[in-house]
Amino acid sequence: MGKSLLGVLLALWSWVWAVQPGEKLPPFVLLDPKGAEVTPETMRKPAVIVFWASWCPVCRAEFPGLHRVAEETGVPFYVISREPKDTKEAVLSYMKAYPRFIPLLASEKDKPHEVANRFKVLGQPWTFVVDGEGKVVALFAGRAGREALLDALLLAGAELP
């Protein structure tokens, strides 16, 4: 089987395996940069959750566009590194360029890469759009296009400008 076909099959299989639209968010307890606990129940919603890694070139390419959407819409974008080697310091340093993002960090109860496993995320970036009830309305494995993301935010109940 060719490498490209294998890649496509793996991507399709992993997308089907992940938390799907209509499903509630899996439980987690992470910390925001101020040390406050963030759970699916305490998150402001509608919201966007992006799993990323500091070394990921696709994440680096995608983040400026995602940040513009966060600025324009006022919807909270929670970013969770799925890389176990990304320290709190590395994450916070990286996020200085993206002040509208809310980085979620390890707590005594959870580590970000463990939360990624609970979402069944197999790569990065993976973006989940969540409605006011904490249900996933859209999933983007890989880059999330601007128009598709805005459409998903509308489905989630976001009031867009």
UniProtKB/TrEMBL annotation:
SUPFAM superfamilies: Thioredoxin-like (SSF52833). It holds the Pfam family AhpC-TSA. This is TlpA family protein disulfide reductase. Residues 19-158 form the Thioredoxin domain. It comes from Thermus composti. InterPro entries: AhpC/TSA (IPR000866), Thioredoxin-like_sf (IPR036249), Thioredoxin_domain (IPR013766), Thioredoxin_ResA/DsbE_sf (IPR050553). It comes from the Bacteria.
